[in-house]
Amino acid sequence: MSVTQQQYPLFFIQRFKGKVLFNVPMSEHTSFKTGGNADVMAFPQDEGDLKDIITFAEAKNFPIYILGNGTNVLVKDGGIKGVVINMADGFKDISWENAKDGAAAVVGAGAKLSELVSECKDRGASGIEFACSIPGTVGGAVVMNAGAYGGQMQDVVEAVEIIGKKGQKSFLSKDEIGFSYRKSAIPKGAVITRAHMRFQIKDAEEIKRKIKEFREKRNVSMGIPFPNAGSVFKNPDGDFAGRLIEEAGLKGQTSGGAAVSDAHANVIVNRGNARAKDVLALIALVRDRVYSMKGVVLELEINVIGED
Ligand SMILES: Cc1cc2nc3c(=O)[nH]c(=O)nc-3n(C[C@H](O)[C@H](O)[C@H](O)COP(=O)(O)OP(=O)(O)OC[C@H]3O[C@@H](n4cnc5c(N)ncnc54)[C@H](O)[C@@H]3O)c2cc1C
């Protein structure tokens, strides 16, 4: 069932501080730049907005999808029947706290990792340099336990604040977040509003040097000139998905407007007019071929959402 503008009472739209958009092309909100329309997209600015939209959608039985910067999702061509809560517009605050050792900050889920890295660099706070080229928000990065160059979010996140499915606020400790490789155990439907993070104090020049080194490495390995969502598959234990895909002869393989990147075999690119079904067909082909040639079942890292 589609959710239409008429189903949203005026009082709700008037009191909501953020934008509420209807029939929104998800291609404009995802790094893959493909996928159908979302019935509704709301951009909460604070916890009041967030509670309002969650309780409203729950009461009406409208499905909810949470979006950060849309850099790890593929939206299917039928779009999203329900409400997308876009967290990339509000919740950008970063507040620093006095800490006995190191530096501690409470970081809004909508803050970009690049902004956090830059602020940490200015303060000589070390630990998040690995994320300098990851294009997501802090909320999305916590959910995905995003990582690179030997670092990952679980190294710096101590707890998160969430708003649950009934609109209730709570804290999750690091143990409760349940970090593992490129995933966490954040309860389904819970929205992260803030992350409590801890860093080490280090020489600012050393931090700068590390960031520069990581950026240079990234330009060589993933300087990809087409829309994409980063690594499509998780690396299997002790191996690299990219290596397996390349050895299966799939670099450059196409399906409609989608292609396995020539630069990095674990990235699928949208060469301009890819439909989500092209990307999904390529994913199926890669998984089949790698399984039949290498005996390895590749597990998806990207999140596939929406309707066929
Ligand atoms: C060019 C490129 C390079 C990349 N490099 C890396 C890399 O080196 N390492 C890496 O790990 N990833 C990488 N990625 C993937 C992606 O950037 C990360 O996974 C990132 O952390 C996703 O953040 P996001 O805000 O875009 O989340 P989204 O893609 O919007 O969402 C990801 C998941 O998090 C959930 N979510 C988002 N925000 C919240 C919230 N506030 N509360 C609850 N749930 C939420 C969504 O529902 C979804 O399940 C790359 C992507 C691109 C395009």
Describe this structure in words.
The protein is 28% helix and 26% strand. The chain starts with 9 loop residues before the first helix and ends with a strand. It is globular, with a radius of gyration of 20 Å. The strands form five sheets. Strands 6, 7, 8, 11, 12 and 13 form a six-stranded antiparallel sheet that branches. It has eight helices and 18 strands. The chain has three domains: 82 residues, Uridine Diphospho-n-acetylenolpyruvylglucosamine Reductase, domain 2 (2-Layer Sandwich); 115 residues, Uridine Diphospho-n-acetylenolpyruvylglucosamine Reductase, domain 3, CATH 3.30.465; 82 residues, Alpha-Beta Complex (Uridine Diphospho-n-acetylenolpyruvylglucosamine Reductase, domain 1), CATH 3.90.78.10. By secondary structure, it is of the alpha+beta class. The site of flavin-adenine dinucleotide (FAD) has 29 residues, from strand 3, helix 4, strand 9, strand 13 and strand 14.
